[in-house]
Amino acid sequence: MVNVGPPILELQSATVIRGGVRTLDALTLAVRSDEHTAIIGPNGSGKSSFIRLLTLEDYPLAVDRETSAVRLFGQARWNIFELRSQLGIVSGDLDASFALQTRGGNVDALEAVISGFFSSQGLFAHQEVTELMRGEARKALKSIGALSLEGKALTTMSAGEKRRVLIARALVRGPRALLLDEPTTGLDLVARHKFMGSIRGLARAGTTVILVTHHIEEIVPEIQRVVLLRKGRIVCDGPPEVVLTNEQLSLAYGIQLDVERNGDYYHVRVL
Fold it and tell me: Of the chain's two ends, which shows fewer C-beta atoms within 10 Å, N or C?
């Protein structure tokens, strides 16, 4: 039995409607501290809406006056900047957005990580950067083995190097949990392997990992729980060996799938 702590997130009959479609349908789910969890499912299953709820970009339909449909770290209301200090976020979309916002600015790795203190994409003249911030940024880079990138411009980095810098940026304020949204998008096989190795190290060091992914092979051994979504609802929830089966995945994806296990990793193919 894995020892887990207080809830990081709690969804209580959370329903989200976008474009007239229920993208989440009365979803009830709780993830606790130290409970490394993967959220999987086909396109349209509700993974994006799940992410947007946690980042306060979407809001659920009201349940009743006494019940809050979404609670993060035990609270129903958050200032988005305060939430960023508790919940670090890394995604392929953030990588692309960060590159667009800083294009031509020659932002280096240290500056990119420091910008996490301000929830901005790059640093601006009005922001006061302290030596304490610089020290914490270097510590965050060191924690994922990327301190050597400190003075390197993002525009000269490989995709894998930039993604590791974004991990450091997400960690710089010491969050209690790390939310990974399709984090290896655009990475080659080697960069993906190194990236997920960094995630494994963070999980073992005590940062709770919530991984939202299409890729079954990214469910690293440290993840003890997998939540399988379909049409905004949970169809299976449990340890990887219970959820990642031919029967469960074939049902959710609507096609015959074959799951192979190699040690602590899973792979899937279409029959």
Answer: N
Q: Inform me whether the pLDDT recorded for 209 exceeds 50.
A: yes
Q: What is the pLDDT of residues 144-174, one digit of tens each?
A: 889 999 999 888 888 889 889 999 999 999 9
Beta bridge partners of 71: 10
Distance separating alpha carbons of residues 150 and 166, to the nearest angstrom: 12
Half-sphere exposure of 44 (CA within 13 A, CB side): 6
Residue-level pLDDT at 98: 67
DSSP 158-206: -HHHHHHHHHHHHHTT--SEEEEESTTTT--HHHHHHHHHHHHHHHHHT
CA 209 vs CA 87, 158, 159, 200, 256: distances in Å: 10, 24, 21, 9, 30
Task: Give the whole-angstrom CA distance, residue 230 versus residue 235.
Answer: 6
Angstrom distance (rounded) from CA 161 to CA 165:
6
